[in-house]
Amino acid sequence: MEDKYVRNSLRFFIGVLLLAVLYSCANIASPNGGPYDEAPPKFVSSTPLPNQINYKGKKVEIIFDELIQIDKPTENVIITPPQMEQPVIRANGRKAVIELMDTLKENTTYTIDFTNSISDNNEKNVLENYSFAFSTGESIDSMEVSGVLLNAENLEPMPGITIGVHTNLEDSAFTTIPFVRTSRTNDKGEFTIRNMAPGTYRIYALEDVMRSYKYSQPGQQIAFYDSLIVPAFELTTRQDTIWKDSLTIDTVMTVGYTHFMPDNIELRLFKEKVERQYMLKPERTDEKILTLRFNTSLDTIPVPVPLNFTPADSNWYFLQTAEEGKAVHYWLTDSLIWKQDTLQVEVNYLKSDSMNILRPQTDTVQFTVRRRPVEKKKKKKKKDDEPEPIEFLGMNVNASGSINLYDTVAVTFSEPVAGLTKDHFYLDQKVDTLWEAVDFDFFPDTTNSLNFFIKRPWKYGEEYRLEVDSATIFSAYGKWNDVYSGEFKIKKEDEYGHLYINIEGADTTAFVELLNSSAQPIRKVKVKDGGVLFMDLKPDKYYARLVLDVNDNGVWDTGNYADKRQPELVFYCPKIFNIMQNWQVEETWNIKATPMKRQKPIDITKNKPKELTKKKRDYKNEGTQSSSNRNSGVGGLRF
User: Fold this and answer.
1) How far apart, in Å, are the Cα atoms of 400 and each of 16, 50, 465, 522?
2) Beta strands at 358-368 and 342-352: parallel, antiparallel or unpaired
3) In sequence order, what are the residues at sequence separation of 6 or more whose Cβ sits closer than 8 angstroms to the Cβ of residue 347?
4) Cα 152 from chain centroid?
5) Using CB atoms within 10 A of its CB, is residue 150 exposed (0-12), middle (13-18) or buried (19+)?
6) Backbone angles phi, psi at 525, to 5 degrees
7) Are strands 162-166 and 181-184 parallel, antiparallel or unpaired?
8) What is the pLDDT, as a whole number, of residue 3?
């Protein structure tokens, strides 16, 4: 009896132990390998030594404490003085290897700026802003200048642009000889030119695709600084904070450092207006339309002269410009002409010569239409008294529902129309419950012969009806319109908001553009009596851009290097204007109160800076998550 009790107890104990073992196996968590490596590679040694003098070799090897990689070395590694022959830059295990192909200059400091291209091989921790220098002479040049490069027209930070300096202070140096030292802008448009010798310099920016290190190609984006720069430094102190963790300060220390100046250079990148003008390939995608396209907008529309056909009427085409003035459509009105497969015309227009000067050009242009074989379609059986369907002239009116107080009604046709006047339209206003005819202005679109405008000084809350009788408007090809009747309302005053901005710092002619959330201008008002007023705004979020319009022509103008003319200054208001219904907002904007590089709101900045810092790992939950994933998949025991 006693032996039986012992055996049962032993079985029970073994069963409990087995269950415990099985349970622990099913929920085992794999080791996470310890904390992540979040430190970037560290410098160990190099040949030559950092800042070594009298070095005559052309190969540089830098050794780090772990395996490294170099991201896009030809783009991200900057060697100065600039190299005419491309150097070899590669990662080799823990080494960064640079082989210079150019002959080294005497008594010159060489800088290899890796920017943010070096990272460790596993976790991709970036070694930020790392540079290496050596000298072929008796001393190392150690001066620095820094600043920011912005797009002159929209204050976008401009990454990847070459910044260069010249000790030759003549204006011609920028266009004839390579820079003596260079750098390149980062994703914030910031730059630093390191290891400069004491002296006086001119500084430039250049979109140097060909790596010539000089302004040699029309159409390159450039920037130049009006003032000379003289590198200097001062020994000063700053506060450095040591953190226990992300929330707790450990120590605040006062440390000394070298402050290099100037460190606030602002360069504004622009492209000179030197675009050559020429004609592209003519097109005839429709038998009734001849199209001439140009690479830029035209000031004068070419007049085609027939060569292989004789029009019966001098008005043998309707003119339509499109694509912001870069394309001209000639709608043929004579069927005897458009039925010809090939039409030849003589065209006189302005074309840029080798000196980029517009000169008269005469060309013979041939238009050929490719006609597809007519496919026989099965006709549906119809009743004897069923009429043929009518293909009406397309007519689109952009007024329906409610429109804004400042809107103009546009009427657009699918084909050119002949003899159209305001008498073809009836505009009635609703007074109480009755419709009363009212007068209006009617005029064609000067850039599009298919488009016409109806305008009237609308007032808040008014109701209108626009009507057109059937078969009163005819196209050049015999189509007529269908009957049209549409009603629309002008929005009420309490549906709008108003914005007044007091402008400080604009001492010349200027205008302000109100921008939407896509940074597109929706209104433009000249600064008058120290401010601008924007009436009748739809409730929305707005931004403001001011242009110092020096020549008072109502548009932003680019610069010109030969004339030493900077592009017109542009400012962005850092504030966001939230406009609500039936609300008036008044703000004051000092256009020079905020540094230019911080003016443009980040919401409408396209070139946003990249995040270099890696996300922290969740050490605490890492093992639990790994265990949970295994339990739900292959390899776990299930009960």
Assistant:
1) 80, 73, 10, 21
2) antiparallel
3) 279, 292, 302, 303, 304, 305, 362, 363, 364, 365
4) 13
5) buried
6) -135, 135
7) antiparallel
8) 55
Contact partners, residue 15, CB within 8 Å, separation at least 6? none
pLDDT (0 to 100) of residue 366: 95
Residues 6+ apart with CB under 8 A from 171: 561, 564
Three-state SS string across 215-270, please? Answer: CCCCCCEEEECCCCECCEEEEEEEEEEEECCCCCEEEEEEEEEEEEECCCEEEEEE
Alpha helix stretches (DSSP H) within 318-437 = 335-338
Q: How far apart are CA 140 and CA 134, in angstroms?
A: 7
Tell me which amino acid residue 286 is.
D
Q: Taking the alpha carbons of 150, 156, 159, 161 in that order, is the dihedral positive or negative? A: negative
pLDDT at 543: 98
Using DSSP's 3-state secondary structure scheme, residue 12 falls into helix
Please, what are the averages of pLDDT over each run of 10 residues along the chain (639 residues)? Answer: 52 56 50 66 96 96 96 92 94 96 95 94 90 96 97 97 97 96 95 96 95 89 97 89 74 87 97 87 92 89 94 88 87 90 94 84 92 59 67 92 92 91 96 95 87 95 96 92 95 95 93 96 96 95 97 95 96 96 95 96 90 50 46 35
Structure tokens at 382: 């119809």
Nearest to 192 by CA among 116, 104, 85: 116
What residue spans of 27-77 are helical by DSSP H?
73-76
Residue 314: what pLDDT? 85
State the DSSP code for 52. Answer: B
Angstrom distance (rounded) from CA 309 to CA 336: 9
596 contacts 150 by C-beta, under 8 angstroms: yes
Closest CA to 427 of 406, 449, 457: 457
Instruction: Determine the residue type at 188.
Output: K
Helix (H, G, I), strand (E, B) or coil at 630: helix
Helix (H) or strand (E) holding 522: strand 521-526
Token pair belonging to 45: 């040694």
What three-state secondary structure class fits 604?
helix
Q: Give the C-alpha distances (Å, rounded to integers) separating 96 from 55, 62, 249, 628.
A: 18, 5, 36, 41
3-state class (DSSP) for residue 144: strand
pLDDT of residue 580: 95
Closest CA to 499 of 379, 579, 406: 579
H helix and E strand count, the chain: 5, 42
SS3 per-residue string spanning 129-146: CEEEEEECCCCCCCEEEE
Which residue from 61, 131, 141 is spatially nearest to 108, judged by alpha carbons? 141
The answer, as to whether pTM is greater than 0.70, is yes
The backbone torsions φ and ψ at residue 295, rounded to the nearest 5 degrees and listed phi first, read -80, -10
| Rounded Cα distance, 437 and 466, in Å | 10
How far apart (Å, rounded) are the C-alpha atoms in residues 95 and 88? 14
Q: What is the DSSP letter of 567?
A: P
Report d(CA 294, CA 223) in Å as an integer: 29
